[in-house]
Write a structure and sequence with these properties.
The chain is of the alpha+beta class. The chain has three helices and three strands. A three-stranded antiparallel β-sheet has the order 1-2-3. Helix 1 packs antiparallel against helix 2, helix 1 runs parallel beside helix 3 and helix 2 runs antiparallel to helix 3. The chain is elongated.
Length: 150
């Protein structure tokens, strides 16, 4: 009779550790996406000068569910297809998990690039007379006119 201490321990497979890494990296990427999607900008209205401010256009972005669903979809698809491809000689589970992870990281990079581009775009667009520039995601805007502005 063997005691529990003497029983052989089963080792985790590489797929199990990679799947755990996929979950943690996906959660980290979702957190980074939330950071990139919470921004606000307040460019001055066209015609404002240092001496006389006419007002501001306020932009405020909040996390958009579309990016979250896309990221989780890549992670979930990578895991499910990875399970289906276990033991395959080509396109095995490790490669599929890596592709799912690449999709999640790619979406995160895209969200950060869009954050930088949109942030600069709203300042440029308002300075050139477009008070309602095109933005991607959940971006709300309002116009604040100051006291004696026309």
């Amino acid at each position: 009779m063997t005691t529990p201490a003497e029983e052989p321990r089963t080792r985790e497979s590489l797929f199990t550790t990679d799947s755990r890494k996929l979950v943690w990296i996906t959660l980290l990427c979702l957190f980074l996406q939330v950071l990139a999607q919470n921004w606000s900008a307040g460019p001055p209205l066209p015609g404002s000068t240092d001496d006389r401010q006419l007002g501001f256009v306020q932009f405020g972005a909040r996390p958009w569910i579309g990016w979250v669903l896309l990221s989780v979809g890549f992670a979930f698809a990578g895991f499910v297809v990875g399970v289906a491809r276990r033991g395959a000689s080509r396109w095995n589970q490790d490669r599929i998990l890596a592709l799912g992870l690449a999709g999640v990281v790619g979406v995160t990079v895209l969200v950060w690039v869009l954050f930088i581009v949109q942030y600069e775009w709203v300042y440029w667009a308002v300075a050139h007379g477009n008070l309602h520039p095109f933005t991607i995601g959940d971006v709300a805007w309002s116009i604040e006119r100051l006291g004696d502005a026309p």
